[in-house]
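Annex B, item 7. Sequence and structure tokens for protein A, then protein B.
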Amino acid sequence: MKDTAKHQGLRNQLATVLKAKGITDKNVLKAIKKIPRHLFIDSSFESHAYQDKAFPIAADQTISQPYTVAFQSQTLEIKSGDKVLEIGTGSGYQTAVLLELNAEVYSIERQHELFRITGNLLPKLGYNPKKFIFGDGYKGLPEQAPFDKIIVTAGAPFVPKPLLSQLKVGGMLLIPVGDNTQIMTLFIRKSGKEFEKHELGDFAFVPMLEEKN
């Protein structure tokens, strides 16, 4: 669990790369500079941890590309104290970014292996979501709703209705929708029944799976 000056230097370089790609939110860049991404991936990939690339993790999943994590975090305009539901904890890297932005994070992971690994790792690094749940992200977390923001970190073939219904009025849902490549889609809840939809370009994610594994 070492984090060295060299790692810090590589994180600073990564933040510079992300800035050049259009990440302007100072708090997001600060989080990227602070979080030891190399500790969230298999040690065999450690030397590549601060490249702007996705990498395999346990349970045939991936740790998202840093640009994607930063883009989703910036798009949701996370404010201190925001109640955020994260669908697909994965490695926990996105979770750590949300926590660095002072969000109150509720995170759901459906792969048991990842739930176990990430559940051990996050507290060791000082990251404590409000709730970390082993469950089906398609159902959201009705008992904790409504949420200010909902972030989905896996490709969904359709937009799960429970997630839309669990947003506060004025809240935002950011979800990659599609089968092979996904369109990053932002929904803003305007009223009880009305949502504004924005399509924000193509991304590639691992598929969002129903039920628990």
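Protein B:
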Amino acid sequence: MFTGIVEELGEITAVENLPDASRFRLRGPVVTEGAKHGDSIAVNGVCLTVVEHEGDEFTADVMAETLNRSSLGALTVGSRVNLERPTSVGARLGGHIVQGHVDGTGEIVERKPSENWEIVKVSLPADLSRYVVEKGSITVDGVSLTVVDAGPDYFTISLIPTTLALTTLGLKQPGDPVNLEVDIIAKYVERLLGDRAQAPAPVHAPVQEATK
């Protein structure tokens, strides 16, 4: 599990195309400290498994399903990426519960800079709009953010200078894709309420009158 608090801005150093997959080599001095084979690292919000680790670089295999459902397929050598290691038990939950399982992709629609922050509008797939609410949580390229405004096919986020400087969201331009993960709690609530609505009404045994 992750929290959406990006630890560092990494870089793609090599891409190897495999049958129905790709192997990425990534540089990230912070997240590779103590890393070993089998560890998980979130790359732009996608939970990947470390295959090899050498120095400040690691490799990870990305299956076709992940390439099709996320924006990782658009990454090339030199692309900057958000990196985060899983949170440890007992650590502070700085962002919100993030699984690293991308629900879909959106696009940067527009950016409105101001003196101390920047408002960014992001397109939203129709099947995800019901999970996004004003002041709710959403993960964009692995960054835990608060929704400012939620529309039927878009949402807006407010980015502080730290987020702009230390994550890919400071580099994204209109038309660029971003990975989206909605709040897992919202999906669980929807499923539980749906199951309850479809459940058959309980059958009660008839109450017998007491005999005198």
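Comment on protein B: The chain has a mean pLDDT of 89.
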